[in-house]
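In line with agreed milestones, work has continued on tokenised descriptions of protein folds. One protein thus recorded appears below exactly as we store it:

>
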Amino acid sequence: MPRFDMSDRTLENVMGRLLRVGVLLATAVVLIGGMRYLWRNGDLAPDYGVFAGRLTDFRSQPGITNPILGLRGSTIIQLGLIILVATPVSRVIFAVVGFALERDRLYTVVSLVVLAILLFGLFGAGT
């Protein structure tokens, strides 16, 4: 089987670009959602006397993805934050694949452990 030739420098450059693109995409989505939210709700006066958390519907996958289709500003902002959280996770997934293609077992295993910790923190700790 032919060995995949990718230098460490190339792997670092691709991972750096992945992080930059993810952060810029998340920033753009949050900015668009914030502008949409202010456009529709900018004239509402906040009531600081009562705290009413309304994000309970954002605790499940359907609760996140279904309202996004309605293009509400708050759900677009939530989508941007999800993209921001997914950016380092995708970087670790890319590291696992890159190190596996380089046949670097130690870094592949370390990256898999980091990925497992990230996924547990995202999906397992809150239940």
Summary: The chain has a mean pLDDT of 80. The CA atoms of residues 46 and 52 lie 11 Å apart. The helical segments are 8-41, 61-68, 73-101, 105-124. The longest helix spans residues 8-41.
